[in-house]
Each structure stands twice: as structure tokens, then as C-alpha cells.
Amino acid sequence: MRFGSTIIVALRALRRNKLRSILTALGIIIGVGAVIAMVSIGNGAKSQVEAQVASLGQNVVTVFSGSFTGGGMRGGWGSAPSLTVDDANAIAANVPNILGVSPEVRDRNQILANGLNWNTQVIGESPDYPQIRSWKIATGSVFTEQDVRSVAKVAVIGKTVADQLFPEQEAVGQTIRIRNIPFKVVGQLEPKGFNLFGQDQDDIVIVPYTSHMKRLSRRTNINSIMIQAASPEVIDRVQQEITDLLTQRRNGKEPDFTVRNQVELAQTATATTRTMTIFLGITAGISLIVGGIGIMNIMMVSVTERTREIGIRLAVGAHGRDVLLQFLIEAIVLSSMGGVLGIVVGVASSEAVKYFLGWPVLVSSFWAFASFAVSAAVGMFFGFYPARQAAQLDPIDALRYE
Question: How far apart are CA 270 and CA 47, in angstroms?
Fold first, then answer.
């Protein structure tokens, strides 16, 4: 029997029981739709986290203060201001493959301007900071190295601060007071939104680190050092060279610093979303297996119902392989039809989640094709046994079957 004729016979058999065919394919439809929707939601969450990590800058290596031991007390990074400006200068002078270095001093202060006030984060940085953070200046400009050397009273502010203190006027050129010291606003940053930790990145005032240390905080140590590596390929080498340099500067003492790079932060941040995506994909994949079992069950019932028909076909000259192929094609058609409709349902569900719940969703064409391929494979796998049972029927026994 020709292959084309076998396909026609299989399709006719499915068309005779339209409702049952649709209900049988429903398990595959739900399974494929669930896989696509769940993976799309997981990928969307992962892409959002990656975008937030990228907003922290490009190829960034950060040195944190801390890790002290004294008087029986011990602490991790950030627990003690152990870094100095000299450490930052040594890194800039001795570590190759870096594009920028910025000593950091952080504090919170009440800012006064224009008859208004606002409590915000005031950080001291070098002019390299916007470049390291990939943060463009919307209006005005960043302060200069000359401003750093002269301990100038200049500042760059974020959009949130500008909106709070200068709601209806241009912020650049205005004066703000920090601890009753006037600072001239020389630039305003482009908005970045919230970061990975839920903090408003635009709620910030940046001043030269020397101005922060000598005029505002009156401190001699810095909180951290931000370094930009030349490329992703050298970031690990830069991190190791910074660690070796700072360790050497401490003359064998226990390290009072911690060096982390952006890749490590990204891996940590995306680990949870990656696990969630895998878990959701596996959970949805179980629906595909259940759908395959449903196809197998219905095909077994179909073989029983059509035993006499099978006997007639075998009696008039059909081979066992023709019968096997017919039932196998029926199972594959059912699962493939379910796969196509499942892709439609999965994409529609993903878009609905995005529209109504506002969740980030990223539909992957790879997972759409993979789900379809798996659904066809499920139909072939679970349809083979019933098809083989039909092909092995004895024609005489089949003709006698009532």
C-alpha cells in the first residue's frame, strides 16, 4: 500500500471522530502551551535581571572595604573602611588593561535647594564614574580632574533629585546645599530606573571624592573602588592583578578587602531565575507526558473498536507494516496538531501575562520549535505500541471479532 494512501486513510479515521481527536490532542495543546508560557516568563525575568546588572556598568571590577579582625571581633566586606585613595591610585598606575578607576565614598544627606529639601545618597567619585557605569549625561557635563584636585564644590545629580528639588526648571547651573555647603550643579544624569536590589539609581548626588572626604564626611578612607576592565576577556586577569597588588601593599597582613567582578554578580543574580525557568519547564513538560499517555490510551481504544476493519484490510492484501504506519500516523498527526495549537496557546498566554500583569516575557522561537518537535516525538513514542498491536492482529481472529 502506498504511503500517500496510508496517510489519507489515517486522516479519514481521525475525521470520523472529530471531537475525540480534539479532546485527545488537548493534553498536548496544554502541555506545549504551558512549556512555552512558563519558559517565556522565566526568560523574561532572566533578561530583566541581566539588563539590571548591565545597568551597573560594563566590565566592572569592584573592590570593597572590610574583612577586619581585631580584639576578638571579625567582620566581612563593608564592615570597616579599610581602603584608601592611595590604593586606587596604585591600581590606576600599576594594573594594565583598565579604562577607568573611581574611588567611592558614600553617605546620605539632606539636600536643600529652591526652598525644598530631599534626603538622598551623596557619593564621592572620580570623573571616570559615568564611563565606568555606562551612564550618559543628559544635560551639562561631568566634573573634571581639576575639580577633584581643587576640592571643588560641584555636583552631578540624578533625575529623581532634579525632579524633587527643581520640578519646573533646569537643574544645571542651580545651587544645592549639602550640610549647609553650597555645591553648583554642573550636570544631570540620564534616568536609569531601579537597580537589581530595588534601589532608585536616579536618587543620587555625585561630587568629587576629594570634596566629599574633605568638606562633607571628613574621612580619610574610602568605601570602595570601581574599576573598568578593557574587555570581558581580561576581567578575570584584572581582578587577580588587583588582588595581588593590594595584598602586596599590605605587607603580608590579612586581606582587609574583597574584589568582585560583574560576571560573578550576574551569575549570582541570574541563578535564581535560571533555576525557576528550569523548574517551570520541567513542570510544564510533565503535561506533555500526560498528553502522550492520553494519546496512547485513545489509540488502544481505537484499535479495539476497529479490530474488524483491521482484519478486512489485512485479508484483502494490506501488510502489517501498512496497518502499523496508519495508526502511527494517526498518533503523530494528533500530537503534531496539538503541538501547533499549543504554540498558539503558549504565545497568546505569554502576551496576556505581559499585557494584564505587566510581567517581563520573552518568547523564544527555539522553545517553540523544540516543543513542537517534542510533541511529535511524544506522539510517535506513545503511538507505537498501539500501532504495533494493531499490526500484529491475526486476520481471521480480527474478522471474527464482534
Answer: 9
Query: What is the grid cell recorded at 246?
Result: 593590594
DSSP 8-state symbol, 395: H
- Tens of pLDDT, residue by residue over 38-66, are 888 878 877 777 676 666 677 899 999 87
105 CB-near residues (< 8 Å, 6+ apart): 123, 124, 209, 212, 213, 217, 219, 222, 223
* C-alpha cell, 20: 475525540
Cα dihedral sign, 387-392-398-399: positive
Whose cell is 568582585? That residue is 260
What lies within 8 Å, CB to CB, of 340 at 6+ separation is 372
pLDDT for residue 81 is more than 80: no
- The separation between the first and the last C-alpha atoms of the chain, rounded to the nearest angstrom, is 26
The DSSP secondary structure of 224-238, one letter per residue, reads: EEEEEESSGGGHHHH
What is the rounded radius of gyration, in angstroms, for the C-alpha atoms of the chain?
33
Q: What is the DSSP letter of 312?
A: H
Cα–Cα distance measured from residue 113 to residue 111, given in angstroms and rounded to the nearest whole number:
7
Q: Say if CB 117 and CB 166 are below 8 A apart.
A: no
Residue 388, SS3? Answer: helix
Model pLDDT for residues 145-186, shown as the tens digit of each residue: 999 999 999 999 999 999 999 998 999 999 999 999 999 999
Nearest-10 crossing angle of helices 320-357, 365-391? 150
Name the β-bridge partners of 73. 70
Cβ pair 55, 256 in contact under 8 A: no
User: CB neighbours of 368 closer than 8 A, spacing ≥ 6?
Assistant: 36, 343, 346, 347
Phi-psi region of 317 (alpha: psi -120 to 50; beta: other; left: phi over 0): left
